[in-house]
Amino acid sequence: MRRLVTLIFLLFSILSFGQLKPGFNTNEAKHTMAMCNSYNFIKQFNSDQTIIPNGYNLSYTSDVMSMDNKFQVYENGKIGVINYRGSTDSVISWVENCYSAMIPANGTITIDGEATEYAFAKEETAAVHAGYGLTIVVLSDVLKAQIKALNSKGIYHIIITGHSQGGALATMTRAYLENLPKGELSSKNVYKTYAYAQPMSGNKEFAIEYDERFSDGGTSYSIINPQDPIPNLPFNYEEETLITKDKIKGWLFGDDEFKPKDLGKDAFIRLFERGIKSYVKNSNTLVNKILGLKFGKIEMPEFVSDINYFPTGNLKEIEPFEYPKIELDVSDLTEEELKDLPQDEDGNWYKQEPKFFQHSPYNYYVAMLKKWDRSSFENLELFYLDSDL
After folding, report:
1. 283: how many CB neighbours lie within 10 A of its CB?
2. Helix (H) or strand (E) holding 376
3. Domain boundaries 22-321+360-388, corresponding CATH code
4. Are 299 and 112 in contact (CB under 8 A)?
5. What's the rounded Cα separation, in Å, for the pair 147 and 124?
6. What pTM was estimated for this model as a whole?
């Protein structure tokens, strides 16, 4: 009898190995957040070897596509991971965020004469972020080819992840793949989503359907720092001057300096404010024309008269990030420069926390280890990246 029980246990273990199960898995979360830091580490240290978890092998890195977007594919046994890059410092990447008018969740996008049908939901009144929707359509052929490549290796359980803009694209990719026509990809495919610090990507109807189909069943998670402003936003723009055709042209052609941090400064505005609707439609019409310079003529579905974005994903919160005390030599600073700097009782001056510190992907990783893997947290060699300070 004991041998039979042991045999059944071993058989169950074999069948379960390499399969995604519903529910929040702290190992899956910390591993995918580590992978989200790959792009950051390669940029800063020319290597991501110190951040990628053991057992995960990079099998594919896409070219730069759409609006400065990239994704990686990792493999770990019978598990695949699709990892999206977040926003970059390039103009076109921020144009993607700003292209925030909603389009129907079902429709057709025509790029340079080639029409592509898409579906992100079944509900007729669901609508999604135009910039993120356009990007998924542009990436769709390469994305499906990579999923088929995973399938050819016997990998059908796939995690989709990303930080910031990459998190929104992860959510949109999940919605896109789950709404493909029957037979376009293998019915064996099982997906799970971990989105970090993601901006919102659709209206209430989209969010309700997405959560009912995926989040409520424990296969889609949104991990946020409550002091990070990005998850509360559908887009960013300069409040004083808004976005003009000449301004975007100047950025694109190098006539004007583009500073993404300045673009976000004091300009995070929820789209629930009176009078924004007309701005969104008008500014996005201009953005659509600007994107034509890159892609050729773009024919988008008519913008939906809805600006009420809603969050998606089973919410998990981590602790806000504590900014370290960094003492400053202020001998050369003016009174105007000193007025916003922190000062202690002894008269020492300290560096002000940067605007995007609470959004840093590495800080997300450290905070997650602190919450769900204390041992790994205590053994970290780096608690902060110099670039975030």
Report:
1. 22
2. helix 374-378
3. 3.40.50.1820
4. no
5. 28
6. 0.84
